[in-house]
Write a structure and sequence with these properties.
- By secondary structure, the protein is α+β, with helices and mostly antiparallel strands.
- Helix content is 64%, strand content 11%.
- The chain is elongated and about 135 Å long.
- The two termini are 60 Å apart.
- The relative contact order is 0.08.
Length: 344
């Protein structure tokens, strides 16, 4: 009976109030019996009131500390769960009024952990299945298109360049006109060839098959930056190898984010960072471009919707933070709840 009484928050507070009142009365009576005759009745009443206030304040502070600590424990656990730590549990100690709440929180956290683990497992399986069907056909088509462009347009541009190089012979007929046409054709052909090489390089797929994510990015990232006039740097701080599905999605997200920098940012520098904590994998891409106002961007622009969809397949999220004149930051987080097969 007493245990149930103490475990009720309402009765616990009432009990503290009654206890503080009883102690106050007893101390006041003791004070009256000790100093009776030494002080007037008014002075005794004042001293008794002060004693009751001090005792009540002390009990109130004690009660606030007890409940404050329990609330802080619950608040900290909730914050950890919000940040992706679904393994957090609250130790059920003693017989305080928060034990039922702690127990319900632990049950909820356990259910969320199991559901998120199942969601991520299903997401990884779906990613791998899609990669084996839909994206395989897309990559094959991109290979064919890159080959056709190289065999036709690129060779034609080279022929234009060769013809333009022979134009100096026209100087014998009209030296000034031939010189002007020569300069224009050489500049145009050189620019066209440069653009075409970049176009072919972008169309040529970079497959992860047989490579880790780090190996693929070590080759693709600097090449892409160089072809598009960017000064790029990459920081690799992953402590463990990721599952194939996570690496696949992260690689596609990096490609999408880099394409957005080239199309929209007008940046000269960018930094790609891949890191992880005990609970999640974080991809960060920062550029020094012109930036934009969030309220001026249409929903789904800048590839955010595509990156969000890819991250959400694995239970993660993608966010873009930008400010006009201060560049843009893309942050993608994927929880490490379900690790899948680590071996390749």
């Amino acid at each position: 009976m007493m245990v149930r009484f103490l475990r009720s928050g309402k009765w616990e507070l009432i009990g503290m109030f009654v206890l503080s009142s009883a102690v106050s009365v007893l101390l006041a009576m003791l004070l009256w019996s000790v100093v009776v005759g030494q002080f007037t009745t008014i002075e005794l009443k004042l001293w008794s009131g002060l004693l009751i206030l001090l005792v009540s304040g002390g009990f109130g502070y004690w009660a606030a500390q007890r409940f404050g600590q329990r609330l802080d424990t619950l608040h900290l656990s909730l914050k950890q769960a919000v940040n992706g730590n679904y393994e957090v549990r609250i130790t059920e100690q003693g017989h305080n009024s928060f034990v039922p709440i702690y127990r319900e929180f632990n049950e909820l956290a356990e259910q969320m952990e199991e559901k998120m683990k199942l969601l991520q497992q299903m997401g990884e399986e779906k990613v791998l299945a899609e990669a084996a069907s839909n994206e395989a056909a897309v990559l094959e088509e991109r290979k064919r298109l890159a080959r056709d462009l190289h065999d036709t347009v690129s060779q034609q541009l080279f022929a234009i360049h060769m013809c333009a190089s022979s134009l100096p012979k026209l100087q014998q007929v009209d030296e000034e006109r031939a010189k002007s046409v020569l300069d224009q054709l050489i500049q145009m052909s050189n620019l066209a060839q440069k653009q075409m090489r970049n176009f072919i390089a972008q169309l040529r797929p970079m497959e992860l098959e047989g490579r880790t994510l780090q190996e693929a990015l070590d080759k693709w990232f600097p090449d892409y930056c160089r072809q598009n006039g960017l000064q790029g740097s990459m920081e690799w701080r992953l402590s463990e190898q990721l599952s194939e599905a996570k690496e696949h999605q992260l690689f596609l997200i990096v490609q999408e984010a880099m394409a957005n920098i080239v199309k929209h940012a007008g940046a000269g520098n960018c930094t790609l960072t891949l890191a992880d904590t005990e609970r999640q994998v974080v991809m960060m891409l920062v550029d020094d471009g012109k930036g934009f106002k969030a309220d001026q961007v249409k929903s789904g622009s800048y590839g955010l919707s595509t990156m969000q969809e890819r991250a959400q397949k694995l239970g993660g999220s993608a966010d873009i933070v930008s400010k006009v004149g201060s560049g843009t930051r893309v942050k993608v987080t994927i929880p490490k709840i379900y690790r899948g097969e680590q071996s390749r």
